[in-house]
Structure formats: C-alpha cells, structure tokens
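Input structure tokens:
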C-alpha cells in the first residue's frame, strides 16, 4: 500500500469515527489543517429498528494540503474507493451495533420494572385481602344478641363470658379469678330464712348479711323491718358470736385477711367486694367480681347512753371473732369514699352486721 492509500484510510477512519459520535446532533466535522470535507448523502434512522444505515457519498476531496501530486491521486483512486467502501462498512457495523445493544438494555430494564411492578401488585393485593379474611368471624345469635362463641356462651337468652375458656351453669356456678366456682342457697332451719352462698378461693362465704332475729342484742336500722330485709340485722359482739346457723360461724380477723388477700389486697377489695348497686353514687363503684355483694348497712352506736343509727348507704361494718381486749373486738369495714378494706376495734356493745363463713 502506498503513502496515499495509508493517508486516505486514516482520514476516512477518523471521519467515520467522528461522524458516528456526532451523527445524533446533525453537526458536520472539519479536518483542521487537512481541510478535508466529508458529507453524508443520507442518514436514515429507523426508531423501531435496532440498526442505522449510514451511506457515504463519493464526494471529491479538494485542495488536500499534502505534498502528493494530483497524478498520484488519480493513480490510487480505485484503491481509495475500495478502502472507502471498507471503512463505510465498518462505520455501518459500528453504528448498527451500538443502538442494538442499547435497545436490548432498555428492553431488559423495562422487563425488570414490569416484573417488579407486577410482583409488588400481587403482594399488595394479597396483603390487602388477608386482614379482611382473618378479621372476619362467624358470630352466633343468643335471643336478640350476637356473640363470639370462642369467648362467650349462651344460656336461655343471656350471654356470659367463658371462665378460663370453659362454659358453666350460671344458675349454680360463677367465674372467680378464671376458675369456675359454685354458688347456691341454703335454708336456716331456725326460721326458714334462705341465704345465698359463694365460693371465694378456698372459702365459702354467705353472699348476704345475716338476718336472724335473736331474743336480744339485735336491731334493724331505724327499727324498720324493711332495712333488715335488705341489709340484715345489727348485732352486738356477744350475740354475733352465736348468731350464725349450724355449720357456719363468725369469721375471725385472719379469715377476713385471707379473703381480702385472695381478691387482690385491701385496695382492690374495696371495689371487688362491693355490690354493683346500692352504694352512695358519690363513692367508689363496686364491681362485685366474686359475688360477695357487700352493701352499706350502716351501724348502731350503743355505748354510755349514746344510741343511734348511722351511715346507711354510706358504710358497711362487720364483726370479727377476734377480740381486741375484754371490752372491745375487731371489725372490718368498707366506706363509700375509702380506698381500702379497713379494720379497727370497737366496743362490743356496738351493733354491726354479721357475714358468716362455712365451717
């Protein structure tokens, strides 16, 4: 290959590379000192195809600043034509390869986005339906009420909470601290009076105050029989010690402490042992969690010519079997505004309520 052919090949290669880099901007390139003009007769790009067609025209090279003569240029025109064709093919090949690679990359990226979006949509759809499915539950009907059979049960037309996950007979049993406890009634053979009783822990307590009329040492609030029917009788301590029916007795201070501790201590007991109704509305509301159903019967003060009934619907007072000294004994009390179940000693001549415990 002569010097002209080498020069032409180099110029055409540089021109092809420059044209390929700046073809998108539509700019024409000039060759600096060589004053070479290269034009393209047509540049066709098909956006939907992955290749571009570049055709170089057979334009003349004019005024090349080169020591070569015009005769040498003519002698090697055929050789330069072949080299031009070869360079043009290289340009076409390079141009067609780049867009194809880019298009392939765009397709892969687009495919990834579609798959990722589709996957996300499926996950969102699935997560959107799952809570709706899991939150739905089938309720049963009890009378006119709906209830969840997993936590409640129906007896007659009434709905009850299960006790430790178990059903029970509300007519004979109750739930106490997650355990089914029996309750019921018994009859005092002395006067035919019927009393409710309830199991609380290991103890069995009367669920109402004693209302037995003794020959002496007992009173009704304001001397009204209607008060005794609701709150029971008051008894002085000596009478109270023998007032409970056979099989029952007056609880001592320790037995009261066992009860209070079982229901959660003095502060909890003031709420859990109170009846739900019957107390002054300004006081602490009772929840009667254990069926003890304490009511505010008041008291009868009877000491040194001081006689009087006090604190009905406000306070509840019960004798214990524990003496303080020869003239006084301990009582347990619940006050409307108090935040605990208290204990204190009072003269044995006072009149307080009696709550019997089973032997």
């Amino acid at each position: 290959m002569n010097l002209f052919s080498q020069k032409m090949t180099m110029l055409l290669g540089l021109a092809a590379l420059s044209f390929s880099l700046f073809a998108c901007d539509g700019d024409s390139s000039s060759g600096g000192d060589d004053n070479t003009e290269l034009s393209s007769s047509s540049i066709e790009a098909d956006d939907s195809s992955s290749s571009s067609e570049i055709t170089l025209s057979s334009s003349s090279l004019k005024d090349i600043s080169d020591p070569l003569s015009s005769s040498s240029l003519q002698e090697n025109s055929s050789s330069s034509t072949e080299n031009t064709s070869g360079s043009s093919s290289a340009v076409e090949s390079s141009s067609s390869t780049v867009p194809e690679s880019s298009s392939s990359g765009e397709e892969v990226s687009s495919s990834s986005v579609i798959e990722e979006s589709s996957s996300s949509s499926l996950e969102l759809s699935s997560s959107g339906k799952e809570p709706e499915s899991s939150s739905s539950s089938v309720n049963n009907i009890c009378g006119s009420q709906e209830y969840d059979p997993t936590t409640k049960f129906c007896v007659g037309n009434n709905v009850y909470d299960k006790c430790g996950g178990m059903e029970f007979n509300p007519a004979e049993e109750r739930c106490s601290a997650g355990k089914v406890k029996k309750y019921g009634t018994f009859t005092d053979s002395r006067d035919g009076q019927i009393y409710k009783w309830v199991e609380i822990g290991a103890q069995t307590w009367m669920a109402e105050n004693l209302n037995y009329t003794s020959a002496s040492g007992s009173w009704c609030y304001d001397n009204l029989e209607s008060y005794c029917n609701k709150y029971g009788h008051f008894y002085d301590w000596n009478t109270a010690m023998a007032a409970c029916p056979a099989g029952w007795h007056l609880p001592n201070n320790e037995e009261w402490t066992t009860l209070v501790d079982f229901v959660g201590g003095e502060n909890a007991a003031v709420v859990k042992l109170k009846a739900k109704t019957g107390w002054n509305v300004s006081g602490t509301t009772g929840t009667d969690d254990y069926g003890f159903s304490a009511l505010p019967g008041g008291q009868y003060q009877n000491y040194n010519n001081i006689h009087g009934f006090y604190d009905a619907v406000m306070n509840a007072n019960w004798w214990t079997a524990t003496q303080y000294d020869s003239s006084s004994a301990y009582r347990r009390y619940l006050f409307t505004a108090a935040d605990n179940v208290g204990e204190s000693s009072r003269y044995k001549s006072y009149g307080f309520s009696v709550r019997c415990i089973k032997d």
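Helices lie at 3-22, 70-75, 77-135, 225-231, 237-240, 253-262, 266-272. The radius of gyration is 53 Å.
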